[in-house]
Design a protein that fits this description.
Elements: E1 2-4, E2 7-12, E3 17-21, H1 35-38, E4 43-47, H2 63-71, E5 81-86, H3 88-99, E6 104-110, H4 128-140, H5 142-154, H6 160-171, H7 179-191, E7 205-210, H8 218-227, E8 232-236, H9 243-246, H10 248-260
Parallel strand pairs: 3-4, 3-5, 5-6, 6-7, 7-8
Antiparallel strand pairs: 1-2, 2-4
Helix pairs in contact: 2-3, 4-5, 4-7, 5-6
């Protein structure tokens, strides 16, 4: 475990470096089921995003400030790293690859999107009002709002009940993220638009989507695969927003094939 500038990172295993970035309102402990297999072959660094888990927030709370805090953890001895980013972590991973391409060897984007909210020219996303409502409801019903968000992550999954139980067990395992941090992170989600930038990503990229994802439609991942040079897209049928929890065998097979490729 290490902590630089308030960022909590746990590292296990030995081998080429692999960094895991989680999504909104969660923490790195969510990736625990992946670690036994990955740590046998990789030096896995699991990051608590700023203001989540055991990590202190960054100010101002912006996408670039989050990237800067994470990039500072990995010096020349660590880099370049493979980055697995899930949901919000996927947007962070893409921005990291754009701002510090020398640090990022490969990208694994899980249920990721260049833009989280829909517009007239981007229908592959949730309605802006839906995302804004999460921020508003945090003030009046904090725990209930987070529990509802977890339910949306597994909605439609054929392993929904089991996956939801795992998410609920982890949600507050590292304490409660502050309302201020979660609202700031929602603003990051609402303001992020990487559509004009991702075609400049040079790192080999695998995009994994869930065929029943109600938060980030698979069409967003398919668009990323068409736009990021050389990217490959895999859709896991029956999975929703957390395929690494609901369909671990299929998920692990796909990422292992990508990680083993040279």
């Amino acid at each position: 475990m290490r902590e630089i500038a308030g960022l909590h990172v746990e590292t296990v295993g030995a081998g080429p470096p692999l960094v895991l970035l989680h999504g909104w309102a969660m923490h790195g402990g969510l990736f625990a089921p992946l670690l036994p297999a990955l740590a046998q072959r990789y030096r896995v660094s699991v990051v608590d995003l700023p203001g989540h888990g055991h990590s202190a927030p960054v100010l101002p709370y912006t996408l670039d400030a989050i990237v800067a805090a994470i990039a500072a953890q990995f010096d020349e001895a660590d880099a370049p790293v493979t980055v697995l980013g899930w949901s919000l972590g996927g947007a962070i991973a893409m921005r990291w690859a754009l701002l510090h391409s020398e640090q990022v060897a490969r990208l694994l984007l899980v249920c990721a999107t260049p833009r989280f909210t829909a517009t007239s020219d981007w229908p592959r996303a949730m309605a802006p009002d839906t995302l804004a409502k999460f921020g508003d409801e945090l003030t009046v019903a904090y725990r209930l709002t987070l529990q509802r968000f977890l339910s949306l992550q597994v909605q439609g999954s054929d392993e929904g009940r089991r996956t939801l139980a795992g998410l609920r067990a982890q949600l507050f395992a590292r304490g409660e993220p502050s309302r201020e941090t979660l609202k700031a992170a929602i603003r990051v989600l609402a303001e992020t638009d990487l559509r004009n930038d991702v075609r400049s990503i040079t790192a080999p990229t695998l995009i994994v989507t869930g065929g029943r994802d109600a938060l980030v439609p698979g069409a967003a991942g398919a668009w990323l695969a068409r736009t990021i040079p050389g990217a490959r897209h895999v859709d896991i049928a029956g999975a929703a927003h957390a395929p690494f929890l609901s369909h671990p065998r299929a998920f692990n097979a796909e990422i292992e094939e990508f990680l083993d490729a040279r």
